[in-house]
Amino acid sequence: MSYNDTGKARPRPLLRKLSLVVKLTAFIMLIIALYLTTPDSSRLVSIAGKNLRLETVFGEIRKQTGFEFICESSLLTASRPVTLNVKQATLDEVLTICLKGQRLGFNIRKGTIIIFKLDK
User: Fold this and answer.
1) Among 43, 31, 29, 32, which Cα is nearest to 112's?
2) Is residue 103 left, alpha or beta, with left meaning phi > 0 and alpha meaning psi from -120 to 50?
3) Rounded to an integer, what distance in angstroms lies between the CA atom of residue 90 and that of residue 46?
4) Do the beta carbons of residue 49 and residue 90 sit within 8 Å?
5) β partners of residue 9
6) Helices 91-99 & 54-65, crossing angle to 10 degrees?
7) Are the C-beta atoms of residues 112 and 43 closer than 8 Å to each other?
8) Quick one: pLDDT band at residue 13, thresholds 50, 70, 90?
9) pLDDT in the model for residue 33
10) 61 in the Ramachandran plot: left (φ > 0), alpha (ψ -120 to 50) or beta?
11) Does pTM surpass 0.85?
12) In order of start, what are the domains of the chain with their CATH numbers?
């Protein structure tokens, strides 16, 4: 170990760099963990438009979130157009607005949104 003029040990540059790398890696891992544990339904979506077909809305949600949709095509063709003006709304909120009065429900699982017909 080398010493400076005051007799104190000089910090080693390699040790400082290694310490910085470890701290930075830990910070990045924390951010990734927080992102991955964010509930799917809290992803934010912004959509505005009049008389949008559900296929169009689902396509925009797919673009903004990366989520895929599973839905029978007959459900989409029988659905009514929707008018939306939402900014930074949760996925749950947007889907609830879209499917209100359509007799359709949804379920979100691991990056996939399942659209289904309600029994009632």
Assistant:
1) 43
2) left
3) 9
4) no
5) 3
6) 170
7) no
8) confident
9) 77
10) alpha
11) no
12) 1-37 (no CATH), 40-117 (3.55.50.30)
**pLDDT tens across 62-101, in order?**
999 889 999 998 888 889 999 999 999 999 999 999 999 8
Q: In terms of Cα–Cα distance, which of 91, 87, 86, 115 is closest to 38?
A: 91
Q: What is the DSSP string of 46-110?
A: EEEEEEE-HHHHHHHHHHHH--EEE--HHHHHTSPPEEEEEEEEEHHHHHHHHHTTTTEEEEEET
Query: Would the pLDDT of 40 be above 80?
Result: no
Helix or strand (DSSP H, E) at 45: strand 44-52
Range 34-58 burial, b when 16+ CB lie within 10 A, else e: eeeeeebeebebebeeeebebeebb
Q: Is the pLDDT of residue 10 over 90?
A: no
**Identity (one letter) of the amino acid at 60?**
E
Q: Quick one: how far is CA 74 from the chain centroid?
A: 28
Residues whose CB falls within 8 Å of the CB of residue 107, separated by 6 or more in sequence, listed in order: 113, 114, 116
Distance (Å, whole) CA 47 – CA 86: 5
